[in-house]
Amino acid sequence: MATGLSHEEAPPRPAAPPPESRRRRSPLGLVLIIVGILLLFAVAWIGARAYLAHQELAAAAPDVQVVRSAVESGEAARAAAAAADLQKRAHHAATLTSDPVWQAAEIIPWIGPNLAAVRTVASATDTLAHDVVRPLVSVAGSADPRDLKLSGGKIDLKPLLTAQPVVEKAQTAFESAQQEMASIDDRSVIVPIATAVDKLRSAMTSVAPDLEAAGNTARLLPGMLGATGPHSYLIVAQNPAELRATGGLIGSVALVTTDKGAIALTAEAAGTSIGPWPEPVFAVPTSTTDLYGPLVGRYLQDVNFTPDFPLAARTAAAMWVKAHGGVVDGVITVDPVVLSTLLRATGPVTLPSGDVLTSSNAVSLLLSGIYARFPNQPSLQDAFFSSATTALFSKIASGGADGKALATALTAAGSSDRLRIWSSRPSEQSVLQSTTLAGNLPVSDPQTTALGVYFNDATGSKMDYYLSTSVAAGAAVCRLDDKITSVLHVTLKNNAPANAATALPAYVTGNGTYEVPAGSIRTRIAFYGPEKGFLAGVKSKGADLPSLAGTDKGRPVAVVEVQLAPGESTSIDVEFLGTLQKAPGLTVAVTPTLKGDGTTPDVGARTAIGTVAVPCTASVK
Asked: Does the pTM exceed 0.70?
């Protein structure tokens, strides 16, 4: 009997696992397999869609430049085609990055914020393409003030009225897209995505002022041109040869009326013919008269001693109404520098005197030549100046100006602070308040200290034609409490010839009327600090300088007076301490002046502000 196993017998098979164990493991393995497949699918799906979205956005990028160039050149069909392609591609990219799989993946650590950022960029681009670019392209010819046609003293308002709601809606959509982009935390995304976010933000920041200007134009122009009924505007001509804080003494005024697009010059008057009055005709704040004297509310020529243009405009309007009756709906300032720019759009204008006024001779003729031609005859000087404004207005009103060049000239005038607008109508003024045209006092915020430097003539003459000025500023944290110290450094020079006392007309030098030697220039400079700040010091060449200290709407103010003989110069340093600012950002508003050498200032730029170091050792407390 055999005792071993036959070589043909199979070894015993291992015992099968219990059925319960098989049931416990199999579903788990299946789930893991399924999850793995889903993850691979999701990664592939997201990767493919991300690639396609990137391709769409990359292909759409050139459309933006095509739209801009086509609108600039007036090629409406080309602009519309590019806008349509931009919208299609942007919408496809947004769709690719907003499906449930993509959004579910946004909860995954690290990768989620990157996916969310890509989706937000695509969504914002879709909003810009669909709700901003394409609608604006459809009304580009109507909303652009450069395309407005003025003929026979009238502008057709229908295109503007049609474009108004479209532009306003586009501006709202743009602000929504900006908020979308602001929600991205670019600290939690990879470099390529952060770069794309920065590029779109930068592009939106660069175009925002243009869109805001278009929106403001759409809101303001129809009403100001009389779409809802007659409007009357006081056009105030400032003379920078005798400085005032907003730009110059008011030499002449004209009343312009608008009604349903029709524009007419209905009245004119010399500044000297209005007032003065024994008592203020407008309630000027005591803080203003403490700084600038009681004449602000009594003399038209002195209403703009204050740099607060809305206050000066309201006072001037009240004076006109008291002298001539009627209603003034707004005040607009111009000066010979602005006129010279407008003459680039109209071309030369022939005056009743036979003089030909051009963009190159307007400033020298109106601010110097007429005083030599009519010495000590202010009535003839006023008449000449008035004839120049009337002739230029008549040429513009008759359609004798290129629309694009005219709009460019007005934009440049606004940018240089020589064109100011105030409206008595709250709906219009609320729009103007947010623009550079408003002429408000400087407004600070936690990141920025806003300062001001304003010049007022105290010679009682036209010698500021020879005055040159420069302004520099700086801000820094100098104290242990982290409050911001800011400084202003201002230099003035009298460039009049050495023999100015005898070579220039007495009307120009003042002839010592206010105890200023003929040929010398006396100037009062008002330095404005940040709201709720403090005046820390006023010096000249290292020595303390007497000043009149006060406040204006919560801002510390120092008023300094200097007197310069021909060829003489001086500099002043004023220091302020801020209480609300958390960073050393800085802006400075300055009275637009002349260059002091007889040449025409660049109307397209504000006064250049230099940089000065903050003497922290003197400020630490």
From this structure: yes
